[in-house]
Design a protein that fits this description.
The chain is of the alpha/beta class and about 425 residues long. Helix content is about 40%, strand content about 15%. It has 16 helices and 14 strands. Bound molecules: 4'-deoxy-4'-aminopyridoxal-5'-phosphate. The site of 4'-deoxy-4'-aminopyridoxal-5'-phosphate (PMP) has 14 residues, from helix 5.
């Protein structure tokens, strides 16, 4: 069995042969059989150092023993009965303790469901249908998140999204003056911001700018949502808001809040979250904001989350992952220098992004940063995969508790070869 033969079979069973469009790869994606720590193995037995880490969900590394034990024990007790259980209370209490905005938490079945719910809450609380979001920030794949997801496009990135929905979404640059001027339109009641900056921080959002955006939103009196689906439990145990002392009204979480299992959450101010309380009535509706979802807060996921949370709350996984990303960034900058390639490695916390042709990401627009030539991205990623290193997406990496200095140095040796090859072939200069 090879990835090539599996891909052929996959294309007859799954559209494009994949379950997520970003997993598509020409000539074919890898089919992975096993993952442990910061490594994974494909169906042909080839081993990879993993910088994708489950789309940044596996903060503790693949297969953390405490999470596996908890899942085994809970699976034997009850996988899912669609009832209330004690673990969901403890899980929400963790989130409410760690996140400054969180008085209450409601669990969802994915990150996209979390942003969908947060936007509905923003609209219900403000009584205004229009949403302001930032160009290029990612908030999931649903109808209300697609206009503005591709920087500079100002349109939904998919067919099938009603124009009437896109017309309710305004898009502005990640710039306080641009936001202030957009918020002159008093039909806007909600602002959503990707707390890392666009695409897990490939377009940096410095803290003074995030604070200024927060201040502009506060002055306009809109509901402010931070999408901390990447930054939550990664930038710090309490996400970006706890690290930098900038607090929104509502926060969306996923990926790590579940201990790396499927699911998500919205947490926030008690008055807004109370719109989901069945005991409340508004405009004849009880609860005023409807939120369902068969697998919300499921006991199996809660058990995994509760096994992961004591580790995540300690700050130790974040410190290790940050140190390993810093080692990777420093090593890559040294390599670019040595090969005479113009560009840099940058990124906050446990992320690392490679930029070619410019050395100061802060001076570039999102569109410029995303404009690395496709042939260069394909050459870099393909060369690294052939040498057993898998990136997260584009030219970016995330690290975890399981990354070690030895693994980073081994990955840097692969980068060294690939960058030398790309420079020799004139793909980079
Ligand atoms: N928002 C952000 C910032 C994300 O990174 C993601 C997932 N990459 C989402 C929302 C959507 O989450 P999910 O893929 O679980 O629907």
């Amino acid at each position: 069995m090879t990835s090539a033969t599996l891909s052929q079979r996959a294309r007859a069973a799954l559209p494009g042969g994949v379950s997520h469009e970003l997993r598509y790869r020409a000539p074919h994606p890898l089919f992975i059989k096993r993952a442990l720590g910061a490594e994974k193995w494909d169906v042909e037995g080839r081993r990879y150092i993993d910088f994708k880490m489950g789309s940044a969900s596996q903060m503790l590394g693949h297969g953390h023993p405490d999470v596996i034990t908890a899942l085994r024990q809970q699976a034997a007790r009850a996988i899912f009965s669609a009832d209330c259980h004690e673990m969901e209370i403890e899980w929400a209490e963790w989130v409410n303790r760690l996140y400054p905005c969180a008085d209450r938490t409601r669990f969802t079945a994915s990150g996209s469901e979390a942003t969908m719910l947060a936007l509905r809450l923003g609209r219900a609380w403000s009584g205004k249908e229009r949403i302001l979001r930032i160009d290029g920030h990612y908030h999931g794949w649903h109808d209300h998140a697609l206009k503005g997801a591709k920087p500079g496009s100002n349109r939904a990135t998919s067919l099938g999204v009603p124009q009437a929905v896109s017309d309710l979404i305004d898009v502005c640059a990640a710039d306080p003056q641009a936001m202030e001027s957009a918020l002159q339109d008093d039909r806007i009641g909600t602002v959503i911001i990707e707390a890392s900056g666009a695409n897990y921080g490939s377009v940096p959002l410095p803290t003074d700018r995030l604070r200024a955006l927060h201040d502009v939103a506060r002055a306009a009196g809109v509901v402010l949502i931070f999408d901390e689906i990447i930054t939550g439990f990664r930038w710090s145990p309490g996400g970006r808001q706890a690290r930098d002392g900038v607090t929104p009204d509502l926060t969306t979480l996923a990926k790590i809040v579940t201990g790396g299992l499927p699911g998500g959450a919205v947490c926030g101010r008690a008055e807004i979250m109370a719109l989901m309380n069945n005991a409340a009535t508004r405009d004849g509706l009880s609860p005023p904001v409807s939120h369902k979802g068969t697998f919300n807060g499921s006991p199996l996921i809660a058990a995994g989350a509760l096994a992961a949370l004591p580790h995540l709350a300690s700050g130790k996984p974040q410190a290790q992952a940050d140190a390993m990303a810093e080692r990777l960034r420093n090593g890559l900058n040294a390599l670019m220098n040595r090969h005479g390639i113009s560009g840099c490695a940058y990124g906050e916390s446990s992320t690392c992004h490679l930029l070619f042709g410019a050395s100061d990401p802060a001076a570039l627009t999102p569109a410029q940063i995303r404009a690395v030539p496709p042939a260069l991205v394909a050459g870099l990623r393909g060369g690294l995969l052939a040498r057993g290193v898998d990136l997260m997406s584009h030219t970016s990496c995330v690290t975890s508790l399981a990354h070690t200095p030895e693994l980073i140095d081994e990955a840097l040796a692969a980068f060294d070869d690939v960058l030398a090859e790309l420079a020799r072939d004139g793909v980079v200069s």
